[in-house]
Here is the input.
Amino acid sequence: MTDASCDDAHVRRLLMMVATGLNRLREQHPWLDGLPRVWQMLGRGYWLTVASVSRGIRAAYTKELLDGALTTLLNNSSRTMVQAGRAELSCDMIGDAIDAGLDVDGHVLIGAAERGCEAALNQWHLSLSQWPAWHTQLSYVLPVMVLRAIGVKERPEALEVLRWVFNTAISKRAEVQLPQVLLTLLAFKCARYGHFDTFCWLYTEGRRLAQQDITVTVSEADLKAFKDEVLAPFRAARTDELSFIKVLRTDGTARTLCTLMDSAIWFGQEEFVAALSRIQWLQNEMGADWPHDGAAHIVRKGKDVDARGVVRMVSDLACPWGPWTSAECALLRTRPQHRSAVPPQSAQHWMQQLHALGCPCGCSPADDA
Ligand SMILES: [Zn+2]
Here is the structure.
């Protein structure tokens, strides 16, 4: 359909209204139960929408579809299964669907991981464990699950998904080993999306459970295998999320584009930057040290860094100024001051503080008067 007013969401909303109306009718006139003609007209493609209306409607719709010799409620493309995993289904509903013959594979777990719902992970996993082909999917589904769990800012559930995946991988150690580049990529995703708690867990518990280190140096062959098996088929990470990797070429040379600190700065994760700078054990190892050109570099790279942020980095966190000039001060004056819990909020106040700290610029005192 080309008409924009008839898009998929629109159709689903209409369908929801119809199904809700039918549900009311069914409550008032129990003898209408079944409504076979309606269900047959709908077909199996709308199971998720219709089934979410009520348990009675779900049972009637499911029964009609199965009676029509359709043993698969959803078409079993991998995309549809990810959607099924992403949908907010109760454990009861998942159980009903499986009992009614819903045909699923590991892709439902990817959807449930994106939503960060541990109960759904357990429920889907329980149903998959009866299914022999699941074991062959383990090695790529588990890495994709964690990568897709960390994709937006402020999602504490991501940590639950990481715990779940690492513990599942441990329990299946004979069948699956998490790829080493996965741990490093997760660390960089944490920096990008500002998940510091998840990063700390990864650095302590994650490394211990996987019995692997986080390292930026990866062999060309390992990286290719990871791209072919995990990243490309599932779009589990963007190409620019790999720019930290130091690929070890066959001639022994290696090159990297950005460090963990660069990544946190680039994506404006001020808290992550501050936290990283305090972690001594990460310095030099992962590039968690302040960048070579210090605060001057950070202000030029991080478009969200304001005057208060610089004052904090330089005074509390011992970040060097680097080649700081009046040009950096001028850049800060053009930026809005972030709201913070600590007053005062004015940009002028923080510029004065910056100069009081001994900023090596050549500004005249009149500039911030
Ligand atoms: Zn200045």
